[in-house]
Amino acid sequence: MTLNERISKIIEYSQLSSSEFADEVEVQRSSISHITSGRNKPSLDFLIKVKEKFPEIQWDWLINGEGEMLMDHENEKVSEEKKAIPLPDLFAMIDDDNFGKTESEDRIEFQKPRDFPLPKSGTAQEVLSDSQPLETNKIMEETQHSDTQNNKIKRIVIFYENGKFESYEP
To answer: How many CA atoms, within 13 angstroms, populate the side-chain half-sphere of residue 130?
Structure first.
């Protein structure tokens, strides 16, 4: 049995017309016609919508054509019983007679972080006197003066906070 035939069988099972089935599954009516005629294959999105509207249909049968169309109700009841096991009430597990008696013992005490002694070295002035200035400062100053002597101002632009600007050309 092909996937398209299985969709036709689901439509028969639902006892709806093709257009009612399309409305129920929330797809276009033409897509049902195309699927049942064999022109198109159903998309995964379409199959998911069918499964959501008809949860009693088995996935294996719908996708692969294996097994029975409908779920076995005995297995379904067993799985519902397994799901119906209530979780224990945590507040019922508290021993009211001893509640709060051990709170002082349960407190967490935070230890202060240890202070590691820093090695005492010379003062900041001593460290600065040991350092020597870099030679690059002199080189930078010389190149800046020579560059400004050769460069001439072409335009000055002033930008204002309100978004306006003025441009001056000497």
So the answer is: 6
**pTM of the model as a whole:** 0.43
3-class DSSP state of 83: helix
Amino acid at 54: F
Over range 118-130, report the average pLDDT.
59
Indicate whether 92 pLDDT > 90: no
113 CA to centre of own chain: 37
Task: Band the pLDDT of 152: cuts 50, 70, 90.
Answer: confident
By C-alpha distance, which of 58, 60, 61 is closest to 75?
58
- Taking alpha carbons only, the member of 61, 82, 63, 64 closest to residue 72 is 61
- Provide the residue type at 163 as one letter: G
* Closest among 1, 37, 2 to 18, alpha carbons compared: 37
Structure tokens given for 111: 């230890």
